[in-house]
Amino acid sequence: MPLRFSTTFVVAILFTGSAAAIEICSGGNRAARGVTCVVDGDTWWDRGVKYRHAQINAPEISKRGAFCEIERRLGVLARDRLQELMSGGFQTIPLGVKGAYGRELATIKLSNGMEAGAVLVEERLARIYGTPGHKSFCRRYPGVQF
Hints:
Radius of gyration: 16 Å
Helix content: 25-40%
Largest sheet: 6 strands, mixed
Distance between the termini: 58 Å
Strand content: 15-25%
Structural class: alpha/beta
Shape: globular
């Protein structure tokens, strides 16, 4: 008799974190600890490797990196949304090259088959990297109140 696998079983094998919430990154030595966590809307750690999304740019969170308070607040929303998306199950797809700051470039395939960056762009929490104005989140939302 042939073996049959339920869809749930196959997804659990293919996708990291399919049953557990992904944490927001904290603490040092992430590589040594082998953590999986979300830094911001376009940066994450997966089993101790730091990745940068190759196709999108999300707002910055740190007061040092954000150009304005609106960008910082949008950055928190983007980070939290990426955490939510990844917590449903995901697979990091490395591109085999490093970007700025030595991060591995990759994309995130979600358990539903969608690409996480595309979801963030569609929800206006990120922009496609390299498009005009992809770094300016302050002018995009003038007068927005959070």
